[in-house]
UniProtKB/TrEMBL annotation:
This is Glutathione S-transferase. Residues 2-82, 151-231 form the GST N-terminal domain. Residues 233-370 form the GST C-terminal domain. It comes from the Eukaryota. Gene3D superfamilies: 1.20.1050.10, Glutaredoxin. It comes from Porites lobata. InterPro entries: Glutathione-S-Trfase_C-like, Glutathione-S-Trfase_C_sf, Glutathione_S-Trfase, Glutathione_S-Trfase_N, GST_C, GST_superfamily, Thioredoxin-like_sf. Pfam families: GST_C_3, GST_N.
């Protein structure tokens, strides 16, 4: 028992959305349902801030009223609030729109004069509600064609490209809206402590249904499957995995150098990576590409797959990081010269970067160090 107590009458009414939020957030709560007499006593105690229900008592004894404020508070705890400030306002707009409808309905519901009640209810059900449902449908349609919820998947990572970038490319190509949540080191420490990330790492994905997925490759492949960006033949799928895992080995080698604290060792690791490991491996990737229709298209013919997204997002990421270092006047390897030795790869990388959705994403994505 978490110690939350939600007070309301023994009905759904204005408390139901808070109960749904507790359920989705998987937070235990006591669903206190007061009779009219019990409420009269409770109200007289002065505990409810506006003398109304619902009200919430937190485990620390703090008291909160207003059904919307209570629901949003629980949703924030459960990671069910948009993090972008415009999206948050848009979610408020939808909630407030519902609130208007609820008030209209309750006006009719509480009307004592029977003739007036029929008039109000008729107006609500035959005019106000159908009109407003049309508006809600139009808003939903404007959000990813109404295929999901009002807000889509949330991808959590640091404010950089790193291991999350391939998932962002996958979302772009699959034309799936997503929220690109970028946490500072301090925000991540708090998030990590919450235990929500399955392996205590980023990136992690929260789906609109509240399901959570870790591991950058698993996330990217999940999105690619939704967007028909996975090979359908089982050998080809294993081959795409081979390419992606090969890229991951390179990424891990680079990260080893990147995170090395000892400057001498760091230099040694980075030199080995850029002068030996990367060129050797690029040659291998070029040979694989050449074996696939002479490297004239993507790894799997005309079909762009996660093998292409994984490889090109990584190479592009190194290039941008090196360009950033160069702009600061730091000594850097010449990545163009390095990749330039593999003309088939150069043409292929440019082909992938020219895919309209990838081009648009790369142009509009936030600048970042890594
Ligand atoms: N194999 C994992 C590796 C994830 C990983 O190493 N994430 C790092 C950032 S790139 C992280 O979460 N570091 C912070 C931490 O572990 O607290 C993947 O590909 O997702």
């Amino acid at each position: 028992m978490s110690g939350y107590q939600l007070y309301y009458f023994p009905i759904r009414g204005r408390a139901e959305m808070a109960r749904w939020a507790f359920a989705v957030a998987k937070i235990d709560f006591e669903d206190v349902r007061l009779s009219g007499e019990e409420w009269a006593k409770e109200k007289a105690s002065g505990r409810a801030p506006f003398g109304q229900m619902p009200f919430l008592v937190t485990p620390e004894g703090k008291v909160l009223a207003q059904s919307g404020a209570i629901m949003k508070y629980i949703c924030k705890k459960g990671g069910m609030s948009p993090s972008d400030s415009f999206d948050e306002a848009l979610a408020d707009m939808i909630h407030d729109g519902v609130y208007d409808l609820r008030n209209d309905l309750s006006k009719g519901h509480h009307e004592k004069d029977e003739t007036k009640k029929v008039e109000l209810m008729t107006k609500f059900f035959l005019t106000t509600l159908p009109e407003r449902l049309g508006k809600f449908e139009a808003i939903l349609k404007s959000r990813d064609e109404g295929k999901g919820f009002f807000f889509g998947d949330k991808l959590y990572y640091f404010p950089g490209r790193g291991r999350a970038e391939m998932a962002r490319w996958a979302f772009a190509v699959a034309k799936i809206d997503f929220e690109d949540v970028r946490l500072s080191v301090e925000e991540w420490a708090e998030e990590k402590a919450s235990g929500r990330s399955p392996l205590g790492q980023m990136p992690f994905l929260v789906t609109p249904e509240g399901k959570i997925l870790g591991q950058s490759g698993a996330i990217m492949k999940y999105i690619c499957k939704k967007g028909a960006l996975s090979p359908s033949d089982s050998f080809d799928e294993a081959l795409a995995d081979m390419i992606h895992d090969g890229v991951n080995d390179l990424r891990n080698d680079l990260a080893k150098g990147h995170f090395e604290k000892d400057e001498g060792k760091k230099k040694e690791l980075m030199t080995k990576f850029f002068l030996t490991t990367l060129p050797e491996r690029l040659g291998k990737f070029e040979a694989i590409l050449k074996s696939r229709e002479e490297g004239k298209s993507f790894f799997f013919g005309d079909k762009l797959t996660y093998a292409d997204i994984s490889f090109v997002a990584f190479v592009n990421g190194i290039k941008v990081s090196i360009d950033n270092q160069k702009a600061k006047g730091n000594p850097t390897p010449d990545i163009d010269e390095l990749i330039g030795k593999y003309p088939l790869l150069v043409a292929y990388i440019n082909r992938v970067l020219a895919v309209p959705e990838i081009k648009t994403w790369v142009e509009k994505r936030p600048d970042s160090e890594f």
